[in-house]
Amino acid sequence: MLEARNIMKIFRSEGVETCALAGADLTVESGEFVSLVGRSGSGKTTFLNILSTLLSPDSGQLLYRGEDVTAFSPARLNRLRQKDFAVVFQFHYLLPYLSARENVLLPYMKGMKTVPAEVRRRADVCLDRVGLSGKGNKLPGHLSGGEQQRVAIARALVKESSVLFADEPTGNLDRETGDAVMSLLAELRDEGLSIVMVTHDNEYAAMADRMVAMADGVVG
Ligand SMILES: Nc1ncnc2c1ncn2[C@@H]1O[C@H](COP(=O)(O)OP(=O)(O)OP(=O)(O)O)[C@@H](O)[C@H]1O
Ligand SMILES: [Mg+2]
């Protein structure tokens, strides 16, 4: 489904070079749930951002369904990001002036066009799924941190993507809410979604089909 080969990434800022990835490899099968673990600074977020095409590698290959993503046209790359790939960030990036439902609908909001009723209904189904029934009209500021994180997950679900990338999706949640998010991810995997999740939580990491450890910018 997704294959990264020998990915290198060096950050340069203020004359300092940091080698974040030094030849990282990963293969994710269709419907597979992979957890990515490793110490702070080992390159997990950088790798996840490259896998989800939000960041370009300095070198290496990224293949999606056998095709080299770096050779995609900008239009094709946009379609990939809009449809096939969904991302849940460590910090959820909800827009504060949009309701929970509108935040979920963000991938569908284009200019001033109204979102079709059927898509709006799907947003409510996704909010139900993450346990936020009836909270669609609330602004993020009126939701708890855990509820906001779940809105971000609902936003990733609404697109019915093939691969979900999640960077510490339970990082800011209490145990109970974290457990609920993890069961949801397991359910989605059972429905055929491929998942790559970064986590510092060993128990949650072990719930994936495969646990992959990173150290110093490589997969161990
Ligand atoms: N934009 C950037 N500019 C410069 N250096 C960066 C940048 N982003 C990351 N780095 C460096 O690259 C290395 C890997 O960072 P990354 O964020 O991938 O680590 P991580 O494994 O996700 O850590 P954490 O568990 O703390 O989130 C770190 O040494 C970090 O300081
Ligand atoms: Mg990180």
Automatic annotation (TrEMBL):
GO terms for cellular component: plasma membrane. Keywords: ATP-binding, Nucleotide-binding, Transport. It holds the Pfam family ABC_tran. SMART domains: AAA. InterPro entries: AAA+_ATPase, ABC_transporter-like_ATP-bd, ABC_transporter-like_CS, ABC_transpr_LolD-like, MacB-like_ATP-bd, P-loop_NTPase. Residues 2-219 form the ABC transporter domain. It comes from the Bacteria. GO terms for molecular function: ATP binding; ATP hydrolysis activity; transmembrane transporter activity. Belongs to the ABC transporter superfamily. Part of the ABC transporter FtsEX involved in cellular division. Important for assembly or stability of the septal ring. This is Cell division ATP-binding protein FtsE. It comes from Pseudodesulfovibrio cashew.
